[in-house]
């Protein structure tokens, strides 16, 4: 491990890549655009997966698994869907030494294969709602890739639900959007805006797309999760009908929703600093790194027996930890390494601490040292970890607020995006032409149309026409 990474201010993009490689979250794979998620990164993904999975199950969903090979004809059944995904498809044409009769697509998302199966499973209103989630990998042949943010293959979850009425499906779409918001804010310590996407930005095949959007450390937005109301589009494409309570045949209503390993990129860019990753305690592979310090065998014996007391106290408070007692690297080296890897809390113990019945605690998010008494160190650690979780959220929220500006004139808007940028709160007339022109001229796009709209009207940031739609613009990943 070589020391140091490029500063955030110097080159944000270099900082991001170096942080991921050096903190051992991921590495580049032999195939361009693919990445290997290394154990440290995968442990974070497992925490995310466990947290979300519990929330999905608490809202009535079950997991299932569908194959990754999809007949090419399925993708073509929903017109908008095929138009949206065609450029990114990877297709298997040969297998078992022969050319296949029908090419098979490596799933870019699973609506089509899942709805082809729902046709067999849904017959009556008694079969609804059907609430299924899948944890899987997907393949999208992206031209420009970045570790975690956009890779050819990535891990995600995709929820696919079927409902008897449009109202129920819309309710589900928003329920899951709120699950994502809660997860982002409570577990990732990442504040998000929620709202609807414009027609131009919605999912290929959806009636409406909703998203959570977060501000990254360079003031750009990252779409961090989406929830789609699919109406009857996929039910019609796959002929999925049910007998309603009046014994009439009707097409089923659908939703789909997903978050991916992109969330790890979001964690890096929301909280990371020039020393590396800063992990919120709830998603850190473990919460405390303990670094014992000794020079002689006699000191080692004393420190080790003192460590046992610390371990017991941490265990009794359900604090997760790891002891780094490697002898071939110096304590200073270990401090740097665990700071780079973002472990929320460090405990240092040396012979002098043993004598005084104390230890040193260092918060990753602040780096001040605090001397604590051995007694009650477990409880104390829990209190400090809770404070870190809360402070990280508040810090990210303040950063977003400081970089969000109400802008009414297009000249100010252009200047905003020529300089530092951030989130611009403006009005929009609803025209896709205005939306596109703003994007062409400033690279900023409408991230969300917030649910909460102000009473007053404004004028469209581009054409000046009176408008009632309040939107949030940003440059984005
Ligand atoms: Zn306009």
Task: Describe what you observe in this structure.
The protein is an alpha+beta fold and 477 residues long. The chain has three domains: 12-271, Bira Bifunctional Protein, Domain 2 (BirA Bifunctional Protein, domain 2, 2-Layer Sandwich), CATH 3.30.930; 286-386, Anticodon-binding domain (Rossmann fold, 3-Layer(aba) Sandwich); 404-474, Translation Initiation Factor IF3, CATH 3.30.110. It has helices at residues 12-22, 39-58, 72-75, 79-85, 111-121, 166-186, 233-237, 262-271, 297-316, 331-340, 351-356, 377-402, 410-418, 432-442; strands at 26-28, 35-37, 62-63, 69-71, 91-95, 98-106, 130-139, 153-163, 193-196, 208-215, 221-231, 241-243, 249-251, 253-260, 288-292, 321-323, 345-349, 358-363, 369-373, 404-406, 423-428, 445-450, 458-459, 466-467, 469-474. The longest helix is centred in the C-terminal third of the chain and has 26 residues, at 377-402. The radius of gyration is 25 Å and the shape is globular. Residues 429, 431, 434, 460, 462-463, 465 line the site of zinc ion.
């Amino acid at each position: 491990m070589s020391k140091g990474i490029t500063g955030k201010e110097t080159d944000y993009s270099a900082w991001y890549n170096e942080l991921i490689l050096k903190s051992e979250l991921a590495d580049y794979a032999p195939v361009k655009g693919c990445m290997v998620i290394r154990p440290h990164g995968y442990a974070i993904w497992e925490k995310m997966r466990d947290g979300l999975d519990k929330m999905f199950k608490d809202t009535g969903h079950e997991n299932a698994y569908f194959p990754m090979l999809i007949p090419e004809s399925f993708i073509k059944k929903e017109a908008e869907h095929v138009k949206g995904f065609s450029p990114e498809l990877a297709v298997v044409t040969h297998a078992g030494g022969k050319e296949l009769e029908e090419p098979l697509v490596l799933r870019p998302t699973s609506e089509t294969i899942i709805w082809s199966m729902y046709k067999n499973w849904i017959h009556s209103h008694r079969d609804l709602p059907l609430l299924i989630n899948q944890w899987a990998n997907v393949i999208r042949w992206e031209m420009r890739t970045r570790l975690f943010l956009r890779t050819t293959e990535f891990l995600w979850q995709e929820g696919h639900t079927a409902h008897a009425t449009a109202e129920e499906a819309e309710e589900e779409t928003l329920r899951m959007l709120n699950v994502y918001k809660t997860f982002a804010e409570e577990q990732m310590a990442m504040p998000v805006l929620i709202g609807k996407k414009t027609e131009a930005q919605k999912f290929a095949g959806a009636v409406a797309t909703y998203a959570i959007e977060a501000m990254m450390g360079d003031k750009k937005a990252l779409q961090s999760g989406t929830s789609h109301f699919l109406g009857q589009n996929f039910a019609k494409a796959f002929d999925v009908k049910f007998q309603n309570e009046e014994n009439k045949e009707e097409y089923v209503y659908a939703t789909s929703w997903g978050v991916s390993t992109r969330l790890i990129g979001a964690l890096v860019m929301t909280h990371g600093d020039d020393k590396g990753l800063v992990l919120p305690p709830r998603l850190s592979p473990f919460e405390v790194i303990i670094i014992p310090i000794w020079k002689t065998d006699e000191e080692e014996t004393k420190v080790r027996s003192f460590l046992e007391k610390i371990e017991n106290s941490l265990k009794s408070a359900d604090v997760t930890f790891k002891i780094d007692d490697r002898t071939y690297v110096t304590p200073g080296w270990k401090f740097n390494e665990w700071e780079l890897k973002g472990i929320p809390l460090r405990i240092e113990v040396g012979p002098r601490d043993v004598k005084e019945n104390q230890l040193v605690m260092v918060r990753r998010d602040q780096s001040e040292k605090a001397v604590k008494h051995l007694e009650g160190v477990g409880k104390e650690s829990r209190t400090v970890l809770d404070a870190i979780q809360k402070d990280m959220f508040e810090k990210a929220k303040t950063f977003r607020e400081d970089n969000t500006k109400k802008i009414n004139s297009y000249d100010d808007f252009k200047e905003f995006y020529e300089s530092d940028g951030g989130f611009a709160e403006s009005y929009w007339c609803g025209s896709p032409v205005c939306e596109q022109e703003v994007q062409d001229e400033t690279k900023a796009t409408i991230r969300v149309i917030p649910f909460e709209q102000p009473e007053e009207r404004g004028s469209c940031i581009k054409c000046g026409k009176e408008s009632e739609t309040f939107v949030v613009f940003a440059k984005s990943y």
